[in-house]
Amino acid sequence: xxxxxxxxxxxxxxxxxxxxxxxxxxxxxxxxxxxxxxxxxxxxxxxxxxxxxxxxxxxxxxxxxxxxxxxxxxxxxxxxxxxxxxxxxxxxxxxxxxxxxxxxxxxxxxxxxxxxxxxxxxxxxxxxxxxxxxxxxxxxxxxxxxxxxxxxxxxxxxxxxxxxxxxxxxxxxxxxxxxxxxxxxxxxxxxxxxxxxxxxxxxxxxxxxxxxxxxxxxxxxxxxxxxxxxxxxxxxxxxxxxxxxxxxxxxxxxxxxxxxxxxxxxxxxxxxxxxxxxxxxxxxxxxxxxxxxxxxxxxxxxxxxxxxxxxxxxxxxxxxxxxxxxxxxxxxxxxxxxxxxxxxxxxxxxxxxxxxxxxxxxxxxxxxxxxxxxxxxxxxxxxxxxxxxxxxxxxxxxxxxxxxxxxxxxxxxxxxxxxxxxxxxxxxxxxxxxxxxxxxxxxxxxxxxxxxxxxxxxxxxxxxxxxxxxxxxxxxxxxxxxxxxxxxxxxxxxxxxxxxxxxxxxxxxxxxxxxxxxxxxxxxxxxxxxxxxxxxxxxxxxxxxxxxxxxxxxxxxxxxxxxxxxxxxxxxxxxxxxxxxxxxxxxxxxxxxxxxxxxxxxxxxxxxxxxxxxxxxxxxxxxxxxxxxxxxxxxxxxxxxxxxxxxxxxxxxxxxxxxxxxxxxxxxxxxxxxxxxxxxxxxxxxxxxxxxxxxxxxxxxxxxxxxxxxxxxxxxxxx
Length: 719
Ligand SMILES: Nc1ncnc2c1ncn2[C@@H]1O[C@H](COP(=O)(O)OP(=O)(O)O[C@H]2O[C@H](CO)[C@@H](O)[C@H](O)[C@H]2O)[C@@H](O)[C@H]1O
Fold this sequence. Notes:
It is built from 24 helices and 18 strands. It is an alpha/beta fold. Among the domains are: 229-483, Rossmann fold (3-Layer(aba) Sandwich), CATH 3.40.50.2000; 509-697, Glycogen Phosphorylase B (Rossmann fold), CATH 3.40.50.2000. The longest helix is centred in the first third of the chain and has 42 residues, at 48-89. Adenosine-5'-diphosphate-glucose binds next to helix 6, strand 13, strand 14 and helix 19.
């Protein structure tokens, strides 16, 4: 059966009953489809004259279409030339800077909208009408939060939902009426709003929108028949909430998946008043340790992704302390979050329609959301609900597992026979309750954030008590290296480099732009402005993981080398104190910036020559990736993702991206850093070669998104 017929069949089926396997791909049309196959008509056999004529007509029509396409491409090429020449000449009158690439991109797209309509009108089925089932809301006035935090009212974000992106959002038919449904909710038969559209291009002419607008924003290939509804659930999501790399991943990976054509939702707790959000009006009640708790769902749509936030007083004002509180507090938050997140695709209308549970995969992240795969099984699958929804659990850091005494089990609200999933034993913790273990056993697939870490997790040292569980589930484990959000971390467009003497730069302007950033950083930190002195940076959580102790031990050697050192971090109070002491002792050479500052993280990444990452373990590591994009050379402990991403410099072949050392020891760090400093001072061409190789890598999320897609598809077919 042709794939178009396959699609049509499934659309027809969707209007009747759910198929045995719900493989509808609810695809949002993101780009024009030039499906010339629709022009063909099948005629009766023997009607050869008519056939010839028809064939001739079709050939003529195709020729006309191809001519139009060629013409269009020509127009685009001409416009790009014009834009390039304008940009080369355009100087911002206020700042004296060249206008940003995002502006270029916008103006280009605007002009595109003036192109002939007929080329852009895809020959696709129209969207179907959608009538999501509603659920009878409990009488909000008759229920009250009891005790403590739950009595406080929810401080709603402003209703100023004015995101420019919404104009481009694929529109679905709004629900006309909401039929009521008494809890517990039954799976809703929500029609797919976005039909499964086949993407075909047999002409070898690139799709009109495939013509790269800019090198940085070239579209990745579409997922085609693999498109799915993807719901990524995380305790933090940049830019709204971030304590580390998980926030970055939750903010960026979904956009890359959406670019491939998936319908993607991110669900995170609402910790503060985020300006972009709109209240959906959806309110639900969930039980947590016997208490009914109401959540409100908020939503916004940015870069093709539906960001859904779950509001309840227990999340409020935790922005800077997401994982704060005692174990029971955290547990209650995560239980409520997972329960509310799992039903978001049922309840929250995004662009007019809910996702529903067909063709759905959840991506849970770390122990905080490791209950989600368990709830999916226990509350839904075992009751014939969300039968075809799947879960993938991503390990960003196995060091935090949601451990506690066995009687913590009473908090998670599961039937007694699930206890064994959580029960773990190890020589350090003895018999204990372990949320990550249960999630890993229950998820359909497991991802971790590098190949190296996937291997290390199965060792006693690397698995931190879960090596047995991970080895047993090796068949469903895959390592995928994180990417970079190139809108956020890119020296060409970095908004943190537009003031205070900093400047944006690219590979072409590296030799002038980066020294300017270095001078600006030295000035901002109050260090002597000396271009020839190597400036060494560290950015990260002050935590045993990050090997901060090794740097502190190496500082006396470093300050004897005529270098400058800046360390940005927060976390462990002892390490914070040591940073301050170091700065006091070596005030002409060392800065210890205690705190969490995204702006300073960007500025250090741009202004430093060298970035240190002596992590004891590092599942992937993002800062070394950011550093390489900014022409900053990483010196790293060869472990986990650091080993996978920083190929050691080889002076004989002039290859490699930085310096690595094999064991997390101060002497080894000093040895690697010594070689790095020698190259900086004595072998400038080699140094510049390393910088350029780092900057030229494609570290975008597109590649990772492609691999995630394989995992999502594998999960979908996993029973
Ligand atoms: N004081 C500060 N001020 C401003 N920004 C700060 C900061 N401290 C850290 N950051 C930022 O937080 C992020 C940290 O990312 P990492 O990947 O290095 O670490 P983390 O260990 O949190 O993440 C875990 O998850 C990620 C994602 O999978 C893995 O890469 C990693 O190995 C794993 O440990 C970076 O964006 C960094 O700039």
